[in-house]
Amino acid sequence: MSMQMIDIEELPGAQTPPPVSVGGRAISEADIAAEMQYHPADSAGSAQLKAARALVVRELLHQRAQQLGLTAEGSDAEAVDEAVAQLLEAELAVPEPSEDDCRRFYAAHPERFSQPVQLDVRHILLAAPPDDAEARDAQYHLGVELLEALAEHPERMTELAQRYSDCPSREDGGELGRLSPGQTVAELDRALKHLPQGLHDRPLASRYGWHLVMVDDRQESRRLPYEAVTEQVRLSLHEQATRRALRHYLLALEAELGVQGVSLDDDSGGSLMR
């Protein structure tokens, strides 16, 4: 597979992209194509650019490690990775955040240091594929009937879940337990954020069918005290500082060694921190 898979040359008025090199050492189209699988993007061209930048970053660091005698020409990938780790430990200056920095960051980002909404939920899933309009219509009307019965007799939730639900939770009377955001199917997750305690009066749609939902308890989001998240705050600030330091370091290497074919962006070193 090569970069020609995007058929750049076949586009009207398009020019062949310039070859990519670092310090005069070429990065092949084949290597960039192989790297693309690790850089999902909304288009092949974007994935190709991300892959090329990632390889440029690695090559910049590899060549700098060679300059310092940390690795030799022809070293295997494991040796190169170890040398790059030694290089960054020796040359990347990352200041530790002060206590004042941490407290300001905590105050400025309350949403990052809060306990999310938590809900105790029971549900009945009436399964219907998204492309089966007849089944979805039938299951919706069944859901309306069941909700009418539950509105009159909410104590029947366990019974009706065991009789009608297509979710494994039917064995537990439809209980999903205590949920935080992101713990259930996305469509239901979005709706749960806004549901008050009690029986929701309409079936909720998802890719799996219709959900009849009863919220038994709802604990609203609350901000965690600074003392409980001090280490999390410090790590967040340290990561930000590391990204800034790495960006400046890579730009300095780019200017010193020379890069052709692509230019580095603000997050070119991001893959090293994932």
Automatic annotation (TrEMBL):
Domain spans labelled PpiC: 116-217
Cross-referenced InterPro entries: PPIase_dom_sf, PPIase_PpiC, PrsA_foldase, Trigger_fact/SurA_dom_sf
Catalytic activity reported: [protein]-peptidylproline (omega=180) = [protein]-peptidylproline (omega=0)
GO molecular function: isomerase activity
Enzyme Commission number: 5.2.1.8
Superkingdom: Bacteria
Record field: transmembrane: none
Enzyme class: isomerase
This protein's record includes keyword Lyase: no
Entry annotated with the keyword Transcription: no
Keyword annotations: Isomerase, Rotamase
PROSITE patterns for the chain: PPIC_PPIASE_2 (PS50198)
Record family assignment: Belongs to the PpiC/parvulin rotamase family.
PANTHER family: PEPTIDYL-PROLYL CIS-TRANS ISOMERASE HP_0175-RELATED, PEPTIDYLPROLYL ISOMERASE
Name of the protein this chain belongs to: peptidylprolyl isomerase
Species for this entry: Halomonas cibimaris
